[in-house]
Amino acid sequence: MKKTKDLWPYLIMLAKLGALTKEIDISTSRFAREFSEGATISQQTASRKLNELEEQKWIIKRPSIKGQYIRITQSGEQELEKIRDLLADAFMIRDKIIDIQGELFTGMGEGGHYISLEKYYTQFVEKLAFKKVFAGTLNLKLKNRRDMEKRRLLQDKTTQGIRIDGFKDATRTYGPVTCFKATINNKIEGAVLVIQRTSWKEDVLEIISPHNLREQLGLKDGDLVSVRVFLE
Amino acid sequence: MKKTKDLWPYLIMLAKLGALTKEIDISTSRFAREFSEGATISQQTASRKLNELEEQKWIIKRPSIKGQYIRITQSGEQELEKIRDLLADAFMIRDKIIDIQGELFTGMGEGGHYISLEKYYTQFVEKLAFKKVFAGTLNLKLKNRRDMEKRRLLQDKTTQGIRIDGFKDATRTYGPVTCFKATINNKIEGAVLVIQRTSWKEDVLEIISPHNLREQLGLKDGDLVSVRVFLE
DNA sequence: ATTACTAGCATCCGAGTAG
DNA sequence: TCTACTCGGATGCTAGTAA
C-alpha cells in the first residue's frame, strides 16, 4: 500500500491554490515552483505527485491549454478536513480552550430540577465561585460532526474539569458531574455540565450560569450560541 | 537543503500525541505504530525521522527509560501553525465565511459622519437591504496576527464584496467602499466596511448595522466581539 | 526492552527528451 | 510551451544487529 501521508503537503498546497472550490489551471512546472520554498522540487516530480494524487482519487485533473485543470475531490477534501481537525485538536489541548457552537432549544426541565437540589446547588456555588446559580440550564443542540467530536473530547477530559460529587437520598442516587468554566457568546460566564453516566447525548451541550442567559443575551429557541469552554 | 515538507506528517502526529503541551514518552517502535494506518513504517524509519525532526529543530528529545521524551519546540509549533493557517485559509475560501474577533473600542466618530452623508447612506440601505443604518460604526481592535491576516484577506477579496460607489461634492472626493455582510456575535446583522485607500489600519475592523449594536448586544469598550463575515 | 548503526535492496528524483 | 516517459544516480527503506 502506498504511503498516503507523503502526499499531504502536495494536497495542502493545491488547497491553498484554491483547488477546493474550483478547477485551477496550473502547469506542472508552475506547481513545482509554487510548492517550493527554500528547497525545490522538479517539474518531473510535480508531475508524478499529481498523478499519485489522482491515483489516490484525491484530485481529478484534465488537460488545459497551458497545463492542466485540477480540482480536489470529495475524498481529498475529507482528507484535508482530517488533517485540519488533527491540528485543531492539538491546538485546543495546547490552549486549553474549546469553542463549540450549538442551537438553543428548550429541554424538559430536568436540568433546572437538579440544580435546585441543595446538595448540588451548594457545590456549584462554591466550586465554580458563582454568586448563585440561575434555576434552569441552557440546552444547545450541536449541528455537525465536528462540534460533536469536541463535545466528546470534553467527555474524555473530565479529569481536568471541576468535580461535583454525587450523593444519595432516601429514594435514589444522584451521580457525580464534571463542570468546565465557559463563556457564552463571548460575554457571560457559565459552565458546561458533563454528566458521567452510561448514556449521554453526544449532540447536546448543557450549560448553567449565575445569570439568566436567555434574558441577558436576548436568546430565543433556534438561535446559534457560541460557547468557549476552558479546560482548566 | 532538506525537503522539510516531508516531515510535516510526522510533526503533525507528534502534535496529535500531545507533544505541543508537554514532553511525551514514546519509543520509536510505538511511534512507528501510531503513525501507521493502513501503510506501515518501520521502527528504523521512525527513529530516523525523529532525528531529522530534531535536526530541523522542530523537536527536542532526550532518552527515557522506555523510549524517549519528545517535545515540540517553538519553531516546530510555528511550523504547525503555518500548516493550520494554510488549511484554515483554504476552508475559509471554500465556505466563503471568515470569523474574526476583536475588542470593542471607541473611534473618533468619522465612521458615523460618513454614514450620514446621503450619497453613501442611500447606497448602504439599498445595496445591503438594510431598513436603515444606525448612525455610528462599531470599531474592533484586532489583537493577534491571525485576525489581522484575515482582515487582510478581506482587503484582497474586495471583488467579491458589495460595492458602494464614491462621489464628489464641492469640497472633496469621497472614495468607494466595499461591504461584506456579517453577523455580529452570532446574532445581529451588519456589514464590514473595507475602504480602498492607500492607508488602512490592518488591526481595525469597522462595522455598520441597521441596529444599535452597542445597545442591543449590551456591549462596552473592551468587550470581545465575534464577527462572521460572508464573502458573498 | 531500548536507539540507531550498516548493508543491501527498493524507491524516488531529476536530467534528458519524445510526443 | 506542455506532460510524462526512461534511466542512472541519489536517497530512503527495512532487516539484522551492536550497544
Topology readout:
The structure is a homodimer of 232-residue chains.
Chain A: H1 8-16, E1 24-26, H2 28-35, H3 43-55, E2 59-64, E3 67-72, H4 74-95, E4 97-105, H5 110-116, H6 118-128, E5 138-141, H7 145-156, E6 162-164, E7 167-168, E8 173-174, E9 177-184, E10 188-195, E11 204-208, H8 213-216, E12 224-230
Antiparallel strand pairs in A: 1-3, 2-3, 4-5, 4-12, 5-11, 6-9, 7-8, 9-10, 9-12, 10-11
Chain A binds a DNA duplex (19 and 19 nucleotides) through residues 27-29, 41-45, 47-48, 50-51, 63-68.
Could you explain the architecture of this structure?
The first copy, chain A, is α+β, with helices and mostly antiparallel strands. Chain A has two domains: 4-79, Winged helix-like DNA-binding domain superfamily/Winged helix DNA-binding domain (Arc Repressor Mutant, subunit A); 96-230, Elongation Factor Tu (Ef-tu), domain 3 (Beta Barrel). The first copy, chain A, has helices at residues 8-16, 28-35, 43-55, 74-95, 110-116, 118-128, 145-156, 213-216, and strands at residues 24-26, 59-64, 67-72, 97-105, 138-141, 162-164, 167-168, 173-174, 177-184, 188-195, 204-208, 224-230. In chain A, the strands form three sheets. Chain A has a six-stranded antiparallel β-barrel with strand order 4-5-11-10-9-12. The first copy, chain A, has a three-stranded antiparallel sheet with strand order 1-3-2. The first copy, chain A, has a two-stranded antiparallel sheet with strand order 7-8. In chain A, helix 2 crosses helix 3 (43-55). The model of chain A has no long low-confidence stretch (mean pLDDT 93). The A-B interface holds A 1-6, 8-9, 12, 15-16, 18, 20-21, 35, 38-39, 41, 80-81, 83-84, 86-91, 93-94, 101, 185-187, 216, 218, 223-226 and B 1-6, 8-9, 12, 15-16, 18, 20-21, 35, 38-39, 41, 80-81, 83-84, 86-91, 93-94, 101, 185-187, 216-218, 223-226. The structure holds a DNA duplex (19 and 19 nucleotides).
